[in-house]
Specification:
Length: 84
């Protein structure tokens, strides 16, 4: 009888190790899904918020530069950097 009890405990330990491996695989899969979702959200923030803001800033800087150049040279060849 004692040998049957020890076999049951071995079967239980093997089954519990299989369950823990299954849980570990699920945890890894869940972590990868959350990572991919975080990357997607970061991409969305950069696309929707940061890029328009940066584009707006560079556009204003360029327009100020172009206007100052226009005031200095007028709309002549000098404005475009062509001498002569």
């Amino acid at each position: 009888m004692p040998s049957t009890h020890s076999l049951e405990s071995v079967d239980d330990s093997v089954q519990s190790s299989d369950d823990s491996a299954y849980d570990s695989d699920d945890d890894i899969r869940l972590a990868e899904e959350e990572w991919e979702e975080s990357i997607t959200q970061l991409h969305l923030v950069l696309t929707v918020v940061a890029m328009p803001f940066i584009g707006k800033w560079f556009g204003r800087r360029w327009s100020q530069w172009a206007y100052a150049r226009y005031l200095r040279f007028g709309f002549t060849k000098g404005f475009f950097g062509v001498s002569g």
